[in-house]
Amino acid sequence: MADRIRAVLRWETALVVLLVAVAVVGSVRTDGTFLSGGNLFYLGLDIAEIALIALPLTLVIAAAEIDLSVASVLGLSSALIGWLWTAGWPLETILPVVVLVGAACGALNGLLVTRLGLPSLAVTIGTMALFRGLALVVLGDTAVADFPASYTQFGTTPVPGTNLPYPILLFAVLAVVFAVLLHASSFGRAVFAVGANEEAARFSGVRVKRTKLVLFVLTGAVAALAGIVYTFRFSSARADNGTGLELAVVAAVLLGGVSIFGGRGTLGGVVAGVLLLGSLRNLLILDDVSTEVLTVVTGLLLLVSVLVPAVGRRLGRRVDNSRLGRRVDNSRLGRRAGRRAATSAAGPP
Amino acid sequence: MTARPVRRIVAGLALLLSGAVVLSACGGTTRDSSAGARNADNTTASANPNAELKKDLKITFLPKQVNNPYFTTAQHGGEQAAQAFGWQFKATGPSDASAASQVTYINTAAQQRQDALVLAANDVNAVAPALRTARSQGMKVVTFDSDAATDARDVFVNQASTQDIAVGQVKLLSEQLGGQGEFAILSATPNATNQNAWIEVMKTELAKPEYAGLKLVETAYGNDDDQTSFQKTQGLLQAHPNLRGIISPTTVGLAAAARYLSSSEYKGKVALTGLGTPNQLRKFVQDGTVTSFALWDPNKLGYLATYAAAALASGQITGASGEKFTAGEMGEYTVGEHGEVVLGPPTVFTRDNIDQFDF
């Protein structure tokens, strides 16, 4: 009985229902334009960077950490592309170098958090300013825009024969990789364990610091990758690219049902969250709803996303009082954690 | 337990890098190898100057950002033009002035099958790919205030020519000083494109015999920062005891200089003019610190840009040099080089007319 209620209350289910509702309402209100291939193509492009960065950030937040420097890494990556391109480097060298610099930025975050034991919120607010500052040092307030069409077309044209934007293709591949990493590997179990209870994880033999460091490095690398996508999508390398994007990404991850306290969440939920935020925004703009209303609706949706699982959890607790403290079980730490825990580890009740 | 994934990830990154090095070793896409790749301009259609303006046009108006008084005034101008002819006129836009948010709205306008888009570009190049796609789908694009890449729009409605702006400011100062005295320029940043172009023209203008009595003693840079501009004004007045006037061809600089002057002993003794908005300078005009200053009227700018969009969508013009169209009550305009239409000389604001403007 309790399991069944929980299944219905599952946040991921709610997100998918909402997504379908948006699609139906959108299709009716815009005479089908909303679901037309052309519009879906633009919708995909618009969410590309947020979707990409949301993947590693899901793992970071599930491990009860945060990374607010992602948008600045994106900006730094964009500025580096512009600078190196102007200096005459071939793009085939620039792109991997940029991803490595992003990984290095992530490593800096990770080392400050794990070796010095600083809170990631404080560290990444600091590096958010630091990386954006470096981006401005590298490129100043100029813009580099003379990239070859053979590269910028990846950001402006769909995969031939479809309406699929290339950045979304990249996202789909990475989403599978990250889903396997989080939900089907020992590393993923370590991530949840660290997020649920760091002490318990350490005593169970999880290398907590190593796990966190890897998460920050991955986030930095993917944020730099998003910087590449951003740069080619607008064929414009600028130091201020992606300013403020970090909050949109965090919002999408939380809407996806990942607990800000760590230990809980699914990658599928986050993908649904990103899609929901993106389609709602797209629909409201297409339907000529003013920017102010757009901001209010997005804000309300986020509040609901925090509120509903909290209420649901309280309900679930009333239904079955005996499962208090299952958050630790969820992480599948103990060998005895049974099938029951394994199913509920998939997401918030 | 976690050692193996770590090793795998490090190995993955290493593989990625080595692949890149191999790729770049056998040549690659560099700036030199791809230069001059783009020259597409698809204005092949011919204009029909006698075509009537269509009645059922759908026009989207996209400012740099919404809730900005300057652009709201421009939007009102566009609305006036649209009402006269019964066009569907829709103003929309992002709340932040970023190119990325603007691109979303450009794509949306294309999806909504609008006939024309009137926009102030947030970035010359970042909006260009979206505009090119929209144009290839048949939408006409007019930029105003801030241009996009030339091949990404049909017509650019320029608020004023470099010549008009620069000459106008020298003339205002000369009138206020009676043609005699030392003056300084308080500019934006040392590498500001617009300001530097204006200052160059001002210097040429000053060489004319009618301005022989005016002497430019210093050009200071307030970096378009209120505090810095304020301090630079102070510095100019201390460094040049005989200073009789200041030209500040930037709205930030002019407002800061006016604030300094109005609270100093120089109020009313040192003339101040330049480019500014009526809302920023209203109280300094009223208290006598500033006699007159100039700026283009954004209302007329929006009006003209909307007419240009309608003329394009009706086939009256294609954006080629020499074509003419009539912009309602503002009269006839000619498309110049590179598809530019110039609004005309800037509007001069004085105590007499400043209350008619709200931007």
TrEMBL record, chain A:
Keywords carried by this UniProt record: Cell inner membrane, Cell membrane, Membrane, Transmembrane, Transmembrane helix, Transport
Q: Which GO molecular function annotations are given, in alphabetical order?
A: transmembrane transporter activity
Give an example GO cellular component term for this record: plasma membrane
Q: Which InterPro entries match?
A: ABC_transp_permease
Q: Which domain of life is it from?
A: Bacteria
Lipid bilayer topology: Multi-pass membrane protein
Q: Where in the cell is it found?
A: Cell membrane
Q: Where are the transmembrane segments?
A: 40-61, 68-88, 94-114, 121-144, 164-192, 213-232, 244-262, 269-287, 293-312
Record-linked Pfam families: BPD_transp_2 (PF02653)
Please give the chief subcellular localization of this protein.
Answer: membrane
Q: Can you say what this protein is called?
A: Autoinducer 2 import system permease protein LsrD
Q: Which organism is it from?
A: Goodfellowiella coeruleoviolacea
UniProtKB/TrEMBL annotation, chain B:
Gene3D superfamilies in UniProt: 3.40.50.2300
Region (Disordered) spans which residues?
Answer: 30-49
Q: In which residue ranges is the amino acid composition biased (Polar residues)? A: 40-49
Q: Which InterPro entries match?
A: Bact_Solute-Bind_Prot2, Peripla_BP_I, RhaS, SBP_2_dom
Q: Where is the signal peptide?
A: 1-25
List where in the cell it is found.
Cell envelope
Q: Name it.
A: Rhamnose transport system substrate-binding protein
Q: Which organism is it from?
A: Goodfellowiella coeruleoviolacea
